[in-house]
Amino acid sequence: MNSYSFSPAGRGYGIRVNEDAFEKEARPMAELANTTTAPSRIVVTGGSSGIGLAVARHYAAEGAVVGIIGRSDERLARARAELAGEPGDVRTAAADVGDESALTAAVRDLGDELGGIDLLVCSAGIDGEMGAACEEVTTDSFREVLDVNVVGAFVAVRTAIPFLKESPCGSVVLIGSDSGFVSVPGMLAYNASKGALVQLTRALAVELHDAHGIRVNSVCPSIVDTPLAREGLGVESFEHVDYPVQSAEDIAWSVAYLASPRSRAVNGVNLLSDFGYTGRSSFPA
Ligand SMILES: NC(=O)c1ccc[n+]([C@@H]2O[C@H](COP(=O)([O-])OP(=O)(O)OC[C@H]3O[C@@H](n4cnc5c(N)ncnc54)[C@H](OP(=O)(O)O)[C@@H]3O)[C@@H](O)[C@H]2O)c1
Question: pLDDT tens digits for 12-27?
Fold first, then answer.
């Protein structure tokens, strides 16, 4: 019998969990693992610009219904107008992902409007005090980066679970960063937040797949040509820079791969998209 049941008692390490929070009868793993359904109801936080907007465009072009979340009504309206020519349907909800009740309401409203959620993409993110030395970084700004980049992703996922677990192909893709693996001076809070997302991805993947068949992966890019990166690096264009830069569309393709039924066995993966930089040895060859 190819069925699967989740044991909240874990592997005998004596971790006490609230058993009521976990389903006693999990869905048959064979059914979940053999899905051929592609996501058609997508929610993207940070969908009004950069990587999130490219993800929204990718799915709208495929005829999906996409709900985007961002703080600014104006930017949301602009994104919606920009995607109006695509065959899909785009809905918007304004919320600051650092505001738990606003974010919860936005994800729920979009989930209801879309008739469910197959894919949640958490792209909303900020970089904090770029270039500031450790002694200069204020506790408030450090906390703000963690609130938006980490707690915001957690709250969005938690709110989307009731929708994702009803989907035939429920999955989550977090937008992490190569800054979760490597660091440079002056990006302390951002580095810490993206490092946390790496492990949040794994922890959610293990728990949500076992309990509900929901896959959770992340894409971790190096520099992507977006307003955030241009502002952070103080450039108007990346055209003549001597370091590798990728496009937001490159990241949208990685998201689409991770959320596709073709990657049904891929779960808990933090996909580095960095031109191979982190694979390089210090060996002088
Ligand atoms: N660009 C890069 O080089 C790069 C590299 C690695 C990882 N990333 C990650 O990719 C993600 C997207 O960044 P991006 O480069 O696409 O930036 P972007 O062009 O500035 O877009 C950021 C999006 O997030 C929204 N947002 C920001 N703070 C928010 C908040 N508190 N609540 C709700 N929405 C918020 C913005 O809309 P509003 O401002 O209207 O809220 C916007 O839609 C981030 O998590 C970033 O860390 C970027």
Answer: 555 666 666 665 445 5
